[in-house]
Amino acid sequence: MTASPVIEVERLHLAYGDFTAVRDLSFQVQRGELYALLGTNGAGKTSTLEVIEGHRPATSGTVRLFGESPQDRSAVRPRMGVMLQESGFSADLTARESVALIGALSGRQDDVDRVLGIAGLTRKADTRVGQMSGGEKRRLDFATAVYGGPALVILDEPTTGLDIQSRDALWAAVDRLRDGGSTIVLTTHYLEEAQQRADRIGLMHEGMLQREGTVSELTQALPSVITFTLPPGAPEPPIVGARNGAFHVETFSLQEDLHRLLGWAHDAGVELVDLTAAPTRLDDVFRAIEAA
Questions:
Q1: Is the pLDDT of residue 107 over 90?
Q2: What separation in angstroms does the CA of 213 have from each of 58, 65, 126, 192, 198?
Q3: In sequence order, which residues have a C-beta less than 8 Å from that of residue 127 and are 6 or more positions away?
Q4: Other beta carbons less than 10 A from residue 97's beta carbon
């Protein structure tokens, strides 16, 4: 990564009449990183991406891509690939023709058959879009986004409708793009994907960026959880937690408390029934934001 951000968003404000979709939003995406912009439905992330992609002007604030305005299509579009939730390809065009068309419109250069191979669509190259399945169309969306190996790739819900094998293949292709230096911006409702792959995450709620950081930074703000039940007549355990048929222990010292609990159970000859111990996950962070 370098000190020069690929994306700079400063105090972005976007309103539709009396409704404010995005308010006072600021963040940066550094070169070479995978940044996940996440949020609940209506959080404002899609509106934010539309401004970044140049599809919608900001009401106020500043957005820069590679130091340029996203409204400057000739400067920005050849360096950016976008995978929308729905691209709306012509049903009469084949997969090959669709990729070639988007490539020509974007100003990027590539080999169409190579890109179809990346998306797993080689055998569908001459199939009309109207005859393709939903998953195949989604892979076609991906193919058009990565055509030419753009410096910035925006993936909006990229794995919706894909089976496990197709998801794995898509993420392998994304990894290869990153190896080549591409910057990735991701939005997804599959939080486990963001948790596994994002370098940094921005969490939006009600049009504002509520939290931002690495997965570790975001999850460390909330306690980990240990749950278990005890057999009848067992002594009280050495750690305190809410008990409603089972113990529920919240802790910021998971390893220490779990070690103490297991040592106690071993010495006392007590079985910890249905024992689970898990760190905080992104969905827990989401729930905390919504409840605030």
A1: no
A2: 25, 21, 44, 16, 10
A3: 94, 95, 136
A4: 17
The residues near 30 (Cβ < 8 Å, ≥ 6 apart) are: 1, 2, 5, 6, 183
Across the chain, how many H-helices and E-strands are there?
Answer: 10, 13
Give the pLDDT mean for 123-134: 94
pTM for this structure? 0.85
In this prediction, residue 1 has a pLDDT band, given cuts at 50, 70 and 90, of: very low
> CB–CB of 224/277 below 8 Å?
yes
Query: What pLDDT, on a 0 to 100 scale, did the predictor assign at position 41?
Result: 82
Calculate the average pLDDT of the chain: 91
Q: Please, what is the end-to-end C-alpha distance for the chain in angstroms? A: 34
- Residue 79 DSSP label: G
Cα angle 86-90-93, degrees, rounded to a multiple of 5: 130
- Within 13 Å, how many C-alpha atoms sit on residue 267's CB side? 9
CA-to-CA distance for 182 and 175, rounded, in angstroms? 9
For residues 198 and 34, the answer to whether their CB atoms sit within 8 Å is: yes
Provide CB contacts within 8 A for 172, sequence distance 6+. Answer: none
Is the CB of residue 65 less than 8 Å from the CB of residue 52? yes
Structure tokens at 122: 């080689």
C-alpha angle 69-71-76 in degrees, rounded to nearest 5? 65
Tokens of 199: 């370098």
- Paired strand residues for 156: 187
pLDDT digits (tens, 9 = 90+) for 190-239: 888 999 999 999 999 999 999 999 998 998 888 899 999 998 888 989 98
3-state secondary structure of 118: helix
- Are 74 and 113 spatial neighbours (Cβ–Cβ below 8 Å)? no
